[in-house]
Amino acid sequence: MPNKSKKHKKHLNKTFQFLERNIVQRLKKALLSITAVFVVGTLYYWIFEGFSFIDALFFVGITISTVGYGIHKELSVFGKFFTLALILAGLSIVLYNVSYVTALLVEGDLLRLLRQRRVERKVSRMKDHIIVVGVGKIGTEVITQLRRLNEPVVAIDSVISEEELKKKLPANASEVVFVRGDATNEDTLLRAGIKQARALITTLPSDALNVFVSLTAKNLNHDIYIISNISDLSNLTKFIYAGVDHPIATAEIAGLKMVEAIGFLRKKENIVDVLNILDRTFQVEILDITNTKLSGKKISELRLKEKYNVYIVAIIRGDEFILGPSKDEVLTKESKIVLFGEESGLAKFRDDFLNGK
């Protein structure tokens, strides 16, 4: 296990090791070259020109910086030529290295490295989190709902930035760890903590990309639960072969819901949702009991479970919402009831009670 952990950590850092090495090496070279100029200059003035060590160090400093306090009285002719060379060498080295450090800050390489380190630290502390790949319209909504349930989330996207993601999310959903990168790449998934994640949701617009992400994720973590958006149902077998546990055809579901809504409108029903469980269709609907046989009755009198296998799960009365009402609750004509039950039972219930008095 320790070897596995070391291997994982090494793999996790691989993505930005080159950038880190390059920055560190160049910063080291910058410091060494500036130090070398100071050492050579100080030793020359101290040993050959007879300056005190402090005077020699000070003279090198003002020479390189071109502050110009004047030439030392005891400076030899050779010393003057050496000073001229020191000015040229010092200026070249200092200006080059200062411009490099400035470029690092302006181009954002250093900030990017620090940000990657910060993300790595956050992810290393996470366990059983959910990875969301792609933060388009579907991905953003998925993240919002997951954060509403206080689920820890790591988002991956190769196009948008962390700042853009935070703008798209509501304030209460902004605590999301963001990894910039291509999720089909193993390194990106490892940076997102794929090994310790419990689920991955991929919402990319291309079926090919979603399949590839799923294959890569399963290869890195066999136990991870994968939910994937599927655009073309003819690709369903590919998603299953890739190890997707729950493919969701978002377009088909949206189309079905729209057609159902038209059907319910025709029947003058207020359907909230339709569920299919074990090949049985259940509905959640809201009923206004004005001008029905329900007004003035106790819930217990209706014998909903025995006769219809239907339940009143809530009562809406003005701004009041009563969840799980008592059997002794009396239904008033100002009330609306939220019903849950099998489609056939609800149809029979409507026939018995909703045709007026």
UniProtKB/TrEMBL annotation:
<feature type="transmembrane region" description="Helical">
    <location>
        <begin position="30"/>
        <end position="47"/>
    </location>
</feature>
<dbReference type="InterPro" id="IPR013099">
    <property type="entry name" value="K_chnl_dom"/>
</dbReference>
<keyword id="KW-0472">Membrane</keyword>
<dbReference type="InterPro" id="IPR006037">
    <property type="entry name" value="RCK_C"/>
</dbReference>
<dbReference type="GO" id="GO:0008324">
    <property type="term" value="F:monoatomic cation transmembrane transporter activity"/>
</dbReference>
<keyword id="KW-0406">Ion transport</keyword>
<dbReference type="Pfam" id="PF02080">
    <property type="entry name" value="TrkA_C"/>
</dbReference>
<dbReference type="Pfam" id="PF02254">
    <property type="entry name" value="TrkA_N"/>
</dbReference>
<feature type="transmembrane region" description="Helical">
    <location>
        <begin position="53"/>
        <end position="71"/>
    </location>
</feature>
<keyword id="KW-0407">Ion channel</keyword>
<feature type="transmembrane region" description="Helical">
    <location>
        <begin position="83"/>
        <end position="106"/>
    </location>
</feature>
<keyword id="KW-1133">Transmembrane helix</keyword>
<keyword id="KW-0813">Transport</keyword>
<dbReference type="InterPro" id="IPR003148">
    <property type="entry name" value="RCK_N"/>
</dbReference>
<protein>
    <submittedName>
        <fullName>Potassium channel protein</fullName>
    </submittedName>
</protein>
<feature type="domain" description="RCK C-terminal">
    <location>
        <begin position="269"/>
        <end position="355"/>
    </location>
</feature>
<dbReference type="GO" id="GO:0005886">
    <property type="term" value="C:plasma membrane"/>
</dbReference>
<feature type="domain" description="RCK N-terminal">
    <location>
        <begin position="127"/>
        <end position="248"/>
    </location>
</feature>
<keyword id="KW-0812">Transmembrane</keyword>
<dbReference type="Pfam" id="PF07885">
    <property type="entry name" value="Ion_trans_2"/>
</dbReference>
<dbReference type="InterPro" id="IPR036291">
    <property type="entry name" value="NAD(P)-bd_dom_sf"/>
</dbReference>
<dbReference type="GO" id="GO:0006813">
    <property type="term" value="P:potassium ion transport"/>
</dbReference>
<dbReference type="InterPro" id="IPR036721">
    <property type="entry name" value="RCK_C_sf"/>
</dbReference>
<dbReference type="InterPro" id="IPR050721">
    <property type="entry name" value="Trk_Ktr_HKT_K-transport"/>
</dbReference>
